[in-house]
Amino acid sequence: MSAESWSRREVLRVVPVAALAAAHARPASAQSVKWSAGTEAPRLKAPANAADCHHHIYNAKYPVDPKATLRPADALVDDYRALQRRIGTTRHVVVQPSTYGTDNRCHLDALAAFGSTARMVAVVNDSVSTEELKRMHALGVRGIRFNLAQAGATTPEMIEPLSKRINDLGWHIQVNAPATKLLEIMPILERVPSPIVFDHLAHIPQPDGVNHPLFAKVRALMDKGHTWVKLSGAYADTKLGPPTYADSSAVARAYATAAPERCVWGSDWPHPTEQQKQLPDDAVLFDLLTDWVPEEKTRHRVLVENPATLYDFPKGM
């Protein structure tokens, strides 16, 4: 018995019966995807216009930022399309990683290749011109990312002034940082004018989980109506691991129960932080939604309606 097949069955065994009832069985298929374990399709049927709100593209033809510490191998547009065929999502958001600094060419070119079903979150610093921001908006960019998990192209001091500049475009700021850094910059985040999106469950530490002070801070921001959390990266802070990621799953369920209108889902493919560890099974990650968001109507909101609002996807697609 392979580890991948055990994980698929095990995750479905431990998910509550009511959640499984909400999942629609999918035809069995074998779909090998680069940078993803397993080959089976998820049992959860993705609704029409379901969005994967967090993934990256890597292409060696584009120069790497000299300061970058995370330098994954190629994960190309066609590789991601294979993932879409496997899990059933159609809309998606390409997110500029630390690997390329503020050189957004790799992801802007990928955005053009993907077309109108894609949106992008870019990385800029405080030297970016207004003309460049408007150009990127026309191409499909709808936010800027502050990756403070590694030393890189952006700093906390840039958050507030850039938030003010992008707010008129209807963009948001996306933040990826460990808990200690998020608590440190919370006074900034509490006063920025633009919407905020937290990566990967806001990196709530385990085993404290929902009892950690950061969770309460993030929830308070969500309650104010312009902060979102990505239900993604179940492996990022887990101490218990696959297939159920029970500790991270408790955090995800808490967000989705309290503020489902402020949650979106993301694959984090090609899982750059996990490539030297153990690659996750993307079907398992997608099926976790039957546990995190067990009610089908609410899951539709997380996968379709919320992304359409946050990323300004075209209506009627």
Question: What does it look like?
Answer:
- Strands 1-2-3-4-5-6-7-8 form an eight-stranded parallel beta sheet.
- 38% of the residues lie in helices and 12% in strands.
- It is built from twelve helices and eight strands.
- Residues 1-28 have low confidence and may be disordered.
- The protein starts with a helix and ends in a 6-residue tail after the last helix.
- With 317 residues, it is an alpha/beta fold.
- The chain has one domain (33-311): TIM Barrel (Alpha-Beta Barrel), CATH 3.20.20.140.
- Helix 4 links the parallel strand 2 (91-95) and strand 3 (118-122).
Structural class, judged by helices and strands? alpha/beta
Residue stretches low in confidence (pLDDT < 50, at least 5 long) are 1-28
- Number of E-state strands: 8
| CATH fold topology | TIM Barrel
SSE order: HHEHEHEHEHEHEHEHEHHH
- Report, as a whole number of angstroms, the end-to-end distance: 41 Å
The CATH class turns out to be Alpha Beta
- Radius of gyration from the CA trace? 18 Å
CATH architecture: Alpha-Beta Barrel
Query: Number of DSSP helices?
Result: 12
In what order do the strands lie side by side in the largest sheet?
Answer: 1-2-3-4-5-6-7-8
Helix content: 25-40%
Our count of domains comes out at 1
Our estimate of the beta-strand percent is 5-15%
Q: Given the C-alpha coordinates, what overall shape results? A: globular
Largest sheet: 8 strands, parallel
Return the average pLDDT rounded to an integer.
91
What is the CATH superfamily?
Metal-dependent hydrolases
